[in-house]
Amino acid sequence: MSTSRKSSISRPGVSSGKLVVAAMILIAAVLAGITVWHHWSKGYASIAYWGAANGENIRYAPIVKLKTAGKSFDISKARGLVHFRQALIEDASFTGTTAQEASEPAWTHEVVFSWPEKSDVTVVQFDLERGLLALPEHPNALIAKPDPTLSGLSTFFADVTSDASQ
Questions:
Q1: Residues 78/163, Cβ–Cβ less than 8 Å
Q2: Distance of CA 126 to the CA centre of its chain
Q3: What is the pLDDT of residues 26-55, one digit of tens each?
Q4: pLDDT digit string, tens, across residues 47-98
Q5: Closest by Cα among 159, 152, 162 to 131
Q6: CA spacing 20 to 30 A to 158: which of 5, 36, 47, 129?
Q7: Peptide bond preceding 139: is omega within 30 degrees of 0, i.e. cis?
Q8: Kind plus residue range of the DSSP H or E element containing 132
Q9: What is the SS3 assignment for 166?
Q10: Dist. CA 114–CA 125, nearest whole Å
Q11: Torsion angle of alpha carbons 79, 67, 107, 118, nearest 10°?
């Protein structure tokens, strides 16, 4: 008899291939859960401030208008609008809130988010000097981080108003 013949040993139950596949599925599920939690937690405080309907309008409304210095600009297709919207709903853009009454904001810019088929609109007011933004009827205002949020807002507004005037 030849001793070079390979002998296969079979184990009853689970093979190592099945264990590897099960481990990969488990790791994928855990990582998916972490991703969902991470994205949910990035906007928790901002969405609590805006509310669900306003948050939806800020993120998805197809008609976006900027009002400043007595002029109105349609910025619905403006370059940078996606980043502008994202900045408004991410907690990382803000340092906290302050009472509107105590901060005495001078609202210089107003952005209106709306839908053609709905009467529901969201108006966000901006005081770029003090770094504040707020819903008109809300008692508190959000405080924008100086960099990159406030500087980004100033740049975005300057860009969309200069593009429209050219």
A1: yes
A2: 18
A3: 999 999 988 887 666 666 788 889 999 999
A4: 889 999 999 999 999 999 999 999 999 999 999 999 999 999 988 899 999 9
A5: 152
A6: 47
A7: no
A8: strand 132-134
A9: coil
A10: 15
A11: -90
CA distance 34 to 67: 40
97 three-class SS = strand
CA distance 6 to 27: 35
Which residue bears the tokens 């210089």?
108
CB within 8 Å of 142: residues ≥ 6 apart: 46, 49, 94, 96, 97, 132, 133, 134
Element (H, E) at 127: strand 121-127
Helix axes 81-89, 151-165, angle to 10 degrees: 150
Backbone angles phi, psi at 34, to 5 degrees: -65, -40
For the range 70-73, what are the long-range contacts, defined as Cβ-Cβ under 8 Å and sequence gap of 24 or more? 71/161, 73/160, 73/161, 73/164
Which residue in 110, 116, 41 sits closest to 75, CA to CA?
Answer: 110
CA torsion, ordered 99, 57, 131, 93, to nearest 10 deg:
100
CB neighbours of residue 148 within 10 Å: 14
At 156, list the tokens.
Answer: 């975005």
Hey, what amino acid is at 139?
P
